[in-house]
Amino acid sequence: MEWICNKCGEATEIIDVETMYLEFEGMQEAFVCETCNEYWFSGEIARRVVKGEADCEAKME
Predict the structure, then answer these.
(1) Mind listing the pLDDT tens digit for each residue in 18-61?
(2) Which pLDDT belongs to residue 17?
(3) Which domain holds residue 46?
(4) Are 35 and 4 contacting, i.e. CB atoms less than 8 angstroms apart?
(5) Positive or negative, the Cα torsion across 40, 41, 43, 47?
(6) How many structural domains compose the chain?
(7) What secondary structure, in 3-state letters, does 2-39 show?
(8) What's the whole-number mean pLDDT along residues 7-26?
(9) Which carries the bigger pLDDT value, residue 59 or residue 10?
(10) Residue 10 has what pLDDT?
(11) Which of the listed residues 1, 18, 38, 43 has the most CB atoms within 10 Å of its CB?
């Protein structure tokens, strides 16, 4: 699947980006525009991120 940057109109590449939630750091696959460095997560990845965030919150309790 090819995603196009809405800001630049350039094709994006799938690469790992650094993520952070609360005090937990990680890497996650994202669609990244090499021109402006904006990035987006697919719906599948976003669902995994939400679950990961819930797991992080549970560890904080």
Answers:
(1) 988 777 788 889 999 999 999 998 888 888 877 777 777 777 77
(2) 93
(3) 13-60
(4) no
(5) negative
(6) 1
(7) CCECCCCCCECEEEEEEEEECCEEEEEEEEECCCCCCE
(8) 88
(9) 10
(10) 94
(11) 38
pLDDT of 3 strictly over 80: yes
Q: Single out the residue of 25, 22, 28 nearest to residue 59, CA to CA.
A: 22
Q: How many whole angstroms separate alpha carbon 15 and alpha carbon 37?
A: 11
Residue 18 domain flag: yes
Question: What's the token pair of residue 24?
Answer: 């937990």
- Asked if residue 42 is part of any domain, the answer here is yes
Contact indicator for 39, 29 with CB cutoff of 8 Å: no
8 Å CB contact between 5 and 33: yes
Contact of 11 with 32, CB cutoff 8 Å? no
Backbone angles phi, psi at 54, to 5 degrees: -65, -40
